[in-house]
Specification:
The chain is of the alpha/beta class and 295 residues long. The protein has helices spanning 3-21, 79-88, 99-115, 137-149, 153-164, 188-200, 205-215, 225-237, 257-268, 281-285, and strands at residues 29-32, 37-39, 49-50, 55-56, 73-75, 91-94, 124-129, 132-133, 222-223, 245-246.
């Protein structure tokens, strides 16, 4: 499917899944062995869903989940994605390379969600972050240089091609990066920015691919635990995010500076929990349990 078709199909799929999760009432299951009754006949219902992409009679063959719905997690940043996410997403994994863009996206998405009758606290926006940490800034910068030295142009090009759903091997590596913004079909929202930056800075195709492979267009703070914690706190307090998805570029041979040093700093700043609630992922994220929409 082209992007528009994919999102139309996704919208119908999500709507259908919510109906299936709601096809059983929360109290439909009785398990009455004496009367050979597993569930109340009036506690579940057929859907008879026959629309553009799916034909499903229903109901689901299992009871309604303990969370009402599993947490609906989506990833993307394109214009078409924003409309779908504003209606349905509860957690958004997004690519935002800088704080200013992240703030604009956050405000747009939360405003759009309100237009669909949702309150802003019904969805969490979590940009990816690729931290490079060391005890000193000099050591962190050296680690960052070493990690980047491991990236080959060929591997970067292959990785970028797969994400774009477009074969970049057909273009010369040492010539200016081509403007493919209207051609790519994969991860379109992410690469609009990547390609625009490459064109502005007059990068070659090879340079653009390596630049992308270094951080996948995520913010990548390089520094001490104090530096990284300060950056995360600034994003959070500025209204650029509700949290982060941390994407490590490497595994330490011993210890974990992020867990051992960054997290305590976030806790002391009052932006990270010190305990977790019992229950489900929905409880941990502080998301309300959805009501059954078919009752």
């Amino acid at each position: 499917y082209p992007p528009a078709g994919r999102y139309a199909r996704a919208a119908e799929f999500i709507t259908l899944m919510k109906k299936l999760w709601d096809s059983f009432d929360d109290d439909a299951i009785v398990i009455d062995k004496a009367n050979a009754l597993f569930a109340r006949p009036d506690g579940f219902r057929y859907l008879n869903h026959h629309e553009t992409f799916f034909d499903v009679r229903g109901p689901l063959n299992i009871p309604r989940p303990p969370q009402g719905y599993p947490v609906v997690i989506q990833a993307g940043v394109s214009e078409a994605f924003i409309d779908l996410a504003a209606q349905h997403a509860e957690v958004l994994f997004v690519v935002q390379p800088d704080q200013q863009r992240a703030r604009r996206f956050y405000q747009t998405l939360k405003s759009k969600a309100q237009q669909y009758g949702r309150t802003p606290d019904r969805l969490r926006v979590l940009p990816g972050i690729v931290p490079v940490l060391a005890e000193t800034r000099a050591a962190a910068q050296e680690k960052d240089r070493y990690l980047k030295s491991l990236i080959t142009v060929e591997s970067a090009l292959s990785f970028m091609s797969a994400s774009m759903n477009h074969d970049l091997a057909q273009y010369p590596l040492d010539k200016p990066a081509p403007d493919l913004r209207d051609i790519i079909t994969g991860s379109k929202g992410r690469f609009q920015y990547v390609i625009a930056q490459a064109l502005e800075e007059k990068l070659t195709l090879g340079e653009m691919a390596v630049r992308y492979a270094e951080s996948l267009s995520f913010p990548s703070p390089v520094g001490t635990p104090d530096d990284v914690a300060a950056m995360m706190i600034a994003w959070y307090h500025s209204g650029a995010c509700d949290g982060f998805v941390v994407l490590p570029t490497y595994l330490e041979a011993s210890g974990n500076l992020f867990l051992e040093e960054v997290v305590p700093r976030l806790q002391r700043a009052g932006v990270f929990r010190t305990t977790y609630p019992e229950g489900t992922l929905r409880d941990t994220l502080g998301l309300a349990r959805p009501e059954n929409g078919l009752r």
